[in-house]
């Protein structure tokens, strides 16, 4: 509790004790012989103790021309109660109003605290290494690009950079939610906000503080609550009309029935006071943004940045998820998937791989590198190029390699390269890229190169179906067979293949028009060359974007690591948030409406009205705080 | 120039009112009172920034006497 809150708490305790004493005195009849004025004064003392600041604020605001604020309404309602000699009710209304306000400010402060704990990634200092080798502690903002900083064990990395000396494990949990530390050594990129484990690192700074990952993330999370959801906008508009309407209703209720002679003035004033007490929309005005803020906080705890309440709201309605293939579903790294020696050629798997690896050892093509990597992995050494006639080796762009091995022609490449020589049944191209090998004019086998699928993709997609996503689509520039093969492996139910980068936006637009209006489309990409698509989709989700500016810029939701399962996590958080916010709206409005009706009919007391105001606000706030928990 | 200050404010509604009031001040390019993060962001021309900031604080105090900025 802050000082201010403690002061209010003490006033509440004092007043509550006095109030209880007064109630006892009243019930036991001790007060009865006292004159009216004395009773009034006795009740006025605790009333002033508990309510002086409300009345002061109301007076100041009226002098500034602001009438419809809650202080003013409370003042009028309690004055009204005094006027009709309902002293204990006047005191109770003010007391419970203050209790509710205190509760609200504590609850809001608490949830704010738990969110700022998430932001404990802010570095306080940097150890700048001067040219002479001394280190000095400076503000991270003073460090410029290309400066050298020292990060000791247990310290936060203050700025983005490259390790130039040292080895360590860094903990990225604050940024990604990933608890397994990442190993870094010379040449590795490190990101600000991570915590250095055991070793000492010397880091060359690559980004100034305001461009570094930490400040960008902080800015993003802080600004998230400025982008309002539809529900928040609804509440803001609603609040603008609700208070004046109810207040006017109160005035009419106080004046008209007595004029018509239906009920006595004191009764109608009491009913009007009930109106005034429930006329404040605080329960909604606070709990709705708080709910979204909590949801965004819960997501960032898992390493998912949501850039606005509106995007969280949209994420709750995702019905179609579109994935980019390379970099999102697959790693964009090639590896040998299968080695198929030709039957009857008398060559085994190992020999075939050796032939291919020898030929490819002069190429830097990603496919060639993958063949060599496979050879090295199996044999523990580099391919032996002794038998290769280097003078007669040539790379035929787009087709493969032609060389002489042990005096005989060796061709390694696609079907066009070995063309005439391949009077063979071609291997099914669906599995991946096929490298054919022909030796001494004879087809000896093929090696299938596949792009490996990322870990957890299948589970990630399955988890989307589990929570009700209908379509999971993959966009790719690859040929249809390869694309379909990948899609089948990970369980996607639709594929759009052979798309040029520019076609992807059109494909997404088409999918958006196919889906029904109640659901949203999310596009998931790595942000490297799909920024336009990320922006076009209802919800653009960038993956594995730790430190990638373009992705953070273009996407609406940023998943810091590579885990596709987090898409369903963020959807779950979003749905829970939206559900809680809806509960609050319905609950708060419902209770207020009931009290208004009962109040107008004279069927309720001011006590209940106070509950309708602050009680509902507190319950709604407590309910909103549930969004903070991750499940 | 854009600068962010700490800002203690008790209710969401007051924060919105403060923001409106500051935006009306001459010389203010943009202003934001973020209730959740308790931050006050002011954007104004460099040469008059300090004066605009003083005006903004006054305006906020007028709307919400209990607020603390700085």
Shape of chain A: elongated
Average of pLDDT of chain A:
83
User: Radius of gyration of chain A, rounded?
Assistant: 35 Å
Distance between the termini of chain A: 28 Å
How many β-strands of chain B, per DSSP?
A: 4
Biggest sheet of chain A: strands, sense, closure? 7 strands, mixed
Radius of gyration of chain B: 11 Å
Number of strands of chain A: 22
Largest interface: A-B, 23 and 17 residues
> What's the rounded overall pLDDT mean of chain B?
84
| Percent range of helical residues of chain B | 25-40%
Strand content of chain A: 15-25%
How many helical stretches of chain A? 20
Termini separation of chain B comes to 16 Å
Structural class per helix/strand content of chain A? alpha+beta
How does the major sheet of chain B shape up?
A: 4 strands, antiparallel
- Multimeric state of these chains? heterodimer
Reading the helices and strands of chain B in chain order gives EHEEHE
Question: What does this entry look like structurally?
Answer:
The complex is a heterodimer of chains A (631) and B (70). With 631 residues, chain A is α+β, with helices and mostly antiparallel strands. Chain A is built from 20 helices and 22 strands. In chain A, helix 7 runs antiparallel to helix 9, helix 8 packs parallel to helix 20 and helix 14 runs parallel beside helix 19. Chain A is elongated. In chain A, 46% of the residues are buried. The mean pLDDT of chain A is 83. Helix content of chain B is 39%, strand content 31%. Chain B has two helices and four strands. A four-stranded antiparallel β-sheet of chain B has the order 2-3-1-4. Chain B is globular, with a radius of gyration of 11 Å. The chains are: A alpha+beta (631), B alpha+beta (70). At the A-B interface, helix 4 and helix 9 of A face helix 1 of B.
